[in-house]
Amino acid sequence: MAKPDQEMLLRLYDLVVREEHYFLDAYQVRVGYYTRLVLAIAGVTVVGLYLASYTAEWYHFAALCVGPVLIYALSATARDGCYRFYRRYLEAVTSRAKIEQELDLSTPRPEAEERDHTYWANEPYVPPRHVTARKRHRSSEEFIRSSMRRGFHRWNERLLRGFEVFSGVAFVGLLFLTVLRATESFSLVDPAQVEPPPVVAPVSAPETGEPIETVPVPDPITP
Q1: What is the distance between the alpha carbons of residues 75 and 58, in angstroms, rounded to a whole number?
Q2: Range of the domain at 49
Q3: Sign of the C-alpha dihedral, residues 74, 80, 81, 86?
Q4: What pTM did the predictor assign?
Q5: d(CA 7, CA 9)
Q6: Which of 65, 72, 83, 193 has the fewest CB atoms within 10 Å around its CB?
Q7: Can you point out the beta strands (E) in the chain?
Q8: What is the number of structural domains in the chain?
């Protein structure tokens, strides 16, 4: 395969840079979208729990269990999607690094020292910290794997995992309240269906000296 000329390398470089920006923007947009959606569902669930505490109906707590399930599903989907976008972003970074080497953008500029009023001539066009970070790894795949475990992607992944843990705890708590309220509801008996005991009133003893007798007196509410 013939080595691409400089014009083709510049076109590839422009394409890779735009691809890098696209995947990074898509990654950040999706993290923000799923985070806002999860927080909205969590807020609705908390408000619903507050309102259900006044009604004390078991099926209200059962309906709230949908919230944690949705939070877990969204968090798992977000983690998988964000992983793919961030990996594509890093792959674009490695492609750009290879093209920069072909264009001599990652090497010092000795010819700049010959010009007057030139500073940083011993540094490449690419920021030195990027060059140093790339040289630590033996391959681009090793660079990608290492970068996936560091930086803001690591904290975003922890955030989404935290949402999953929260959804599990919330689901167990709501399920416990559902069972508790259902047990209380089914164990209670309607007081209107319970026949009250008869009221016993004492009867005055006659002058004959016979013992006092008591007779049941019906409840005045009973027709």
Answers
A1: 27
A2: 6-190
A3: positive
A4: 0.72
A5: 5
A6: 193
A7: 199-202, 214-217
A8: 1
